[in-house]
Amino acid sequence: MDKLFEKTKERMEKSLDALDREYSAIRAGRANPKVLNNVVVDYYGTPTPLNQMAAISVPEPRLLTIQPWDASMLKEIEKAINTSEIGINPQNDGKVIRLAFPQLTEEHRKNLVKDVSKKAEEAKVAIRNIRRDAMDDLKKLKKDNAITEDDQKDGEKELQKITDDYIKQIDEMGDKKETEILSI
Predict the structure, then answer these.
(1) What is the C-alpha to C-alpha distance for residues 86 and 21, in angstroms, rounded to an integer?
(2) What confidence tens digit (pLDDT) does each residue in 54-77 have?
(3) Closest CA to 22 of 124, 116, 121, 126
């Protein structure tokens, strides 16, 4: 049964990681290098993540600078940023690319908070589905007489405890991201 709990925790941890990645891609009005994590540049015919071919820094709260190690790639990087879904126009001065993050409007902030809540709810559903799978595994073990009915009940209580812990972590992540979005 311990293997079952470990496998369940591992799957739930992956759901938390996925939520964290999704939250990091949400632009909250401040410059965050993680918004560029999904930008892929055509580097001499090879799709290469931007963070592997340039230095990305945050010199000011609302500004990202991208300095490629190969200056001839400036145009390609600019093109990749324009085709990505981050919604910021890059400014190329021939040496570095600057991304200026505009101040978010109140309406846009509210929409982002709704998006954060939606993603949190999706993560909770994923956690509950993992719990259901684990409960089914427990029932199968009981049916195969590998565990007693008392073991099954204890296992269900333990699974619920694990699930509640992960749901709480999702709520905390969501609250933290909402606070970040709503702070001016």
Answers:
(1) 14
(2) 999 988 888 889 999 888 888 888
(3) 116
